[in-house]
Amino acid sequence: MRKVVSTLFFSLDGVAESPDQWQFAFDDEMGAVLSDALESNDTVLLGRVTYSEWAGYWPTVTSGEDAGFADWINNAPKYVASTTLDSVSEWANSTLLKGDLATAIRELKATEGKGISVAGSPGLVRSLIAQDLLDELVLLIHPVIAGEGRKKLFADDAALKKLELVSSQQTSSGVIIATYHPVRSA
Predict the structure, then answer these.
(1) Residue 114 near residue 9, CB atoms below 8 Å
(2) CATH of the structural domain 4-182, one choice from 3.40.50.720, 3.30.450.40, 3.40.430.10, 1.10.8.60
């Protein structure tokens, strides 16, 4: 069975939204984690907001330091979780998930292939965790308070969910890379 994995930039105050506005450093260790994600996953899962933002951008990137990621994500099968979009034909290799999210994810996990990477999409990550559909959560915790009214990954009224820390690493820029697996009842 395939794993669903989310790797998110995360601030000390719990923000995963708009890391481009508060992420102060990107080091080799973070690059290695993201490269490993590209190698161990061959399918992308996106929420509506991330899909809408990225569909107009990544297909236009053909050179520069982001060209490798652009090539990977543009060619990877992409599944979009949305109840409001009618079509995802704007971006090649994209499929709109219809019906119940849990059923769609379980069916996707049962297919052949490498892992399934959740790209950005903190709202989708919240839903996946709440429905016990996320297999691994990798947080790149930056020593910064993002503040300024940005949405936190987990709402203050989120239900209790236990996670197990399976690995952690401090990077040269002071970021903590923490990998968690959900604790599932038997």
Answers:
(1) no
(2) 3.40.430.10
